[in-house]
Amino acid sequence: MYNNCVASSSPQSSTERYWEDSPDRRTFPTSAIRFEANTHEAMPLRQTSRVFETNASRTSYPTHVPQWSQIEMGIWSDGTAIVLSSRCLDVQHYLAQARYALQLPPAPSEEVFVLAALEVFYAPTNPVHWMFWSDERKSETAEVVTRVACKHSSSSDSHILTCLQ
């Protein structure tokens, strides 16, 4: 009754015996199409005589990499622009005052406020983070960050803000 079941303890079926008979029968035959010669002739490559002009790839903006030098801690310059980073002493002093007083002191400038807010943005274990990014303050902080970032990106101001981690 259960002769064809897998869990049966009866002797092997005739199909199983067929595969056990010869090792050659355990493999599938290779398709004959693989051994036929390729009837398609190789198509010759087209020779193009067009020469690409090098002037077509010129850009209208400078492509040199500026050489930045550090003027002070956290302040960099390439001779034409100044980059303020969160490592700037004014920013670090502002953050230290906030940690000591456990409240935000008046910021010396919007740029210092923005760099300080961005410095602690990804640090929710830092108590100063919540002084900028609590539910009550996050909209105001985000508005100042956006305003200062847009002001510096749209003007020809020589100050550039960056937050280095």
How would you characterize this protein structure?
About 15% of the residues are buried. A four-stranded mixed sheet has the order 1-2-3-4. The chain has five helices and four strands; from the N terminus they run αβββααααβ. The chain has a domain of about 90 residues. It is α+β, with helices and mostly antiparallel strands. The mean pLDDT is about 75. α2 crosses α3 and α3 crosses α5.
Q: Average pLDDT, to the nearest integer?
A: 75
Task: Give me the side-by-side strand order of the main sheet.
Answer: 1-2-3-4
Low-confidence stretches: none
Number of helices: 5
Largest sheet: 4 strands, mixed
Summarize this entry quickly:
This protein is of the alpha+beta class and 165 residues long.
Topology, please?
Blueprint (H helix, E strand, L loop, with lengths): L13 H8 L47 E4 L2 E3 L4 E3 L4 H13 L8 H10 L7 H7 L4 H17 L4 E3 L4
Parallel strand pairs: 3-4
Antiparallel strand pairs: 1-2, 2-3
Helix pairs in contact: 2-3, 3-5
Summary tags:
alpha+beta; 165 residues; 4-stranded mixed sheet; 4 strands; 5 helices
